[in-house]
Amino acid sequence: MQKDEYLKKLASALSGIPDAQKKDILADYAEHFEMGVLDGRSEEEISEALGDPRTIGREYTAAALVKNAEADPSAGGLGRAILATIGLGLFNLIVVLIPLICIIMVLAVLFLIGFSLCCAGPILTGGAVLELLGIVSGVLFFSAPAAVFLGIGITCLGLLILIMEYWLIRVLYRIGIRYLKWNIAVIHGSEQI
Amino acid sequence: MNAQFKKGILDMCVMALLGFRDRYGYELVHEISQRFEISEGSIYPLLRRLLTEGYVTTYLQESGEGPARKYYSLTEQGIAARDELIREWRIFSTAVNDLIGEMANAEG
């Protein structure tokens, strides 16, 4: 991106910081661009080499919040500093947490459905068989032979749901791990040597 | 190994360079990125941190070819901090080299 866009993005990522300091920081990067251009590099190249302005902005914000919490102890200040330091890795975690809870609830319900069907099926079949054998009577309100097969069908459906759920959990888990790794790489990658 | 130590390596390199002579931001970025691959933007937050900790001071100097440059200079505290980091680094790298040497001997 061009210098102006870069500086604009950086400025907005520095929103938590006092104006004087913010101007100073932006001056550093503006100077960097100017030097780079004098060096014969393009603004595109320079911004590429600098890295994501938002990540950089977060780093300044975190450092500033930590300094503030240090100088001016308060529960709120400390809380903000911790959150900023854990990086917007935490923010992303929150964004992920709500869908995650929903997914867990869905999985729980699916399990209940599968499990219940697996229980109901045999009970239905068993009852129908007993009915056919004449051991009990009047238990079912529809034909006993149909009930036998219905029970078997229900059991199979229940098993199918449980098996698919198992597979689904494995897939979701892998996706989750990849997301976390991506998070770490993107947020901390710029510090790699 | 201290977890902060890894982050400290870049600090140490910057302070070591400043120990030899004052430099301006772009110069530091250029020299370091010539030797390792870093995202250049990480140097300025580092310099600001050194500034708030009192390890460096800054001053502006006019230059013939272009805008006034902000030069960074190591303070007394900075020199002491730099020496401490270098000491830790020497201990660490000696230990690593010994270990590697041992492994090489075992296989050699």
Secondary structure: elements and pairs:
The complex is a heterodimer of chains A (193) and B (108).
Chain A: H1 3-13, H2 19-38, H3 43-50, H4 53-71, H5 75-85, H6 88-132, H7 144-188
Helix pairs in contact in A: 1-2, 1-4, 4-5, 6-7
Chain B: H1 3-20, E1 23-24, H2 25-35, H3 43-52, E2 56-61, E3 69-74, H4 76-107
Antiparallel strand pairs in B: 1-3, 2-3
Largest sheet, strands/sense/barrel of chain A:
none
Largest sheet report of chain B: 3 strands, antiparallel
Shape of chain B: elongated
Question: What is the mean predicted local confidence, pLDDT of chain A?
Answer: 80
Helix-strand pattern of chain B: HEHHEEH
Walk across the major sheet of chain B and give the strand order.
1-3-2
The number of helical segments of chain A is 7
> What's the overall average pLDDT of chain B, rounded?
86
Could you give the count of β-strands of chain B? Answer: 3
Q: Report the radius of gyration of chain A as a whole number of Å.
A: 30 Å
What does this protein structure show overall?
- The complex is a heterodimer of chains A (193) and B (108).
- Chain A has seven helices and no strands.
- Chain A has a domain of 100 residues.
- Helices cover 66% and strands 13% of the residues of chain B.
- Chain B has four helices and three strands.
- In chain B, strands 1-3-2 form a three-stranded antiparallel β-sheet.
- Chains A and B meet through helix 2 and helix 4 of A and helix 1, helix 2 and helix 3 of B.
Q: Gist?
A:
Helix content of chain A is 82%, strand content 0%. Chain A is mostly helical.
Descriptive labels:
heterodimer, A: 193 residues, disordered C terminus, B: alpha+beta, 3 strands
